[in-house]
Amino acid sequence: MHPSTRIHPTLQTARPLGTALALTLWLLPAQAQLSPLEPSLAAPQPPLLPTPEATQDPDARRTELLLYTSAQRLSAGLGDWSEVGVRGSHTTGAHVLQGELATMKRFGESGRFIGIGDTYSFDADWFGSLSVGAGDGASYLPDFRVDAFLHRKLLADRNLIASLGAGHYRAPDGHTDRSLSIGGTYYFSGPWIVQGEVRLNRSNPGSVDTQQQFLALTWGRDQQTQVTARHAWGGEGYQTIGSGAALTNFKSHQTSLNLRHWLGADWGVVAGVERYSNPFYRRRGATLALFRELP
């Protein structure tokens, strides 16, 4: 799916904040090829990684599982969406492994998606990620997609992360998207994180060039409450709205608000709402999830 959750400074904490925020941002609703402005199920942005001290902490929880459901209502008589899925991450050494499995119904067509990924820390300043995903042939899911990111921590406190990414998407109808992105994330000394990205995309056939961008702001702390607001806007080159039907070369906007709240030492809930619009239809929906952290 077109990109979905992030980055890692040297955080002096005993618990791995990375796993928590990563899964929070993963929860932003899946969009597949439908809306490249949203984060992707198949290619979430790199998760925050725990510090070496946290990785070696025997009390650190290295695994997180998240079960979610979402519902969306569309205008223009395009029918409602529904989706259920499970996502997970596991930290082992310098790797953060991610996976997901989802089943959904969109535009009257049922589909299933599977995605896996790995984020690897090369050294104290560099880390990268690679993710792949595929659908079951549903027109709005990819036959195949692959996304890769490279990240560099900057400044004396390593609290600014510069990111460079590339992606390839092949749809069941044969059209392809190729993208390049550049972005950054800044961690303030307080409970604030700001993130932005610009992505250039070429859709073929037709060589349709578009640009999308997003800004996101997160407030809160791990093991307490975290709130993320995100707004994306720009052009889309191609969007399937059912078998044999597609929209091409148009503008769209997407806004989402997500809250993650711990109800216990190792579990909690995530809730989110979003709104998407383009010249042809509007989409509004909500997502609810339960997460659990494991040793």
Strand content: over 45%
Globally, the shape reads globular
Describe the biggest sheet?
14 strands, antiparallel, barrel
Structure classification: mainly beta
Q: Provide the helix percentage.
A: under 10%
Rg estimate, integer Å: 18 Å
- N-to-C terminal Cα separation, in Å? 30 Å
Poorly predicted residue ranges: 1-56
Number of domains: 1
Oligomer: single chain
**CATH architecture tag:** Beta Barrel
Strand order of the largest sheet: 1-2-3-4-5-6-7-8-9-10-11-12-13-14
CATH class: Mainly Beta
Question: Which fold name fills CATH's third level, the topology?
Answer: Porin
Order of helices and strands: HHEEEEEEEEEEEEEE
Q: How many DSSP helices?
A: 2
Layout of helices and strands, plus pairs?
Elements lengths: L16 H10 L25 H5 L6 E12 L6 E12 L2 E12 L2 E13 L4 E10 L8 E11 L5 E11 L5 E12 L4 E13 L3 E13 L4 E16 L5 E17 L4 E11 L4 E13 L1
Antiparallel strand pairs: 1-2, 1-14, 2-3, 3-4, 4-5, 5-6, 6-7, 7-8, 8-9, 9-10, 10-11, 11-12, 12-13, 13-14
Essential attributes:
mainly beta, Porin, 14-stranded antiparallel beta barrel, 2 helices, 14 strands, 60% strand
Describe it for me?
The protein has one domain (17-294): Beta Barrel (Porin), CATH 2.40.160.40. The two termini are 30 Å apart. It is 5% helix and 60% strand. The chain is built from two helices and 14 strands, in the order ααββββββββββββββ. It is mostly beta strands and 295 residues long. Strand 5 (126-135) and strand 6 (144-154) form a beta hairpin. The chain has helices at residues 17-26, 52-56; strands spanning 63-74, 81-92, 95-106, 109-121, 126-135, 144-154, 160-170, 176-187, 192-204, 208-220, 225-240, 246-262, 267-277, 282-294. The longest helix has 10 residues, at 17-26. 45% of the residues are buried. The protein is globular and about 50 Å long. It has a 14-stranded antiparallel beta barrel.
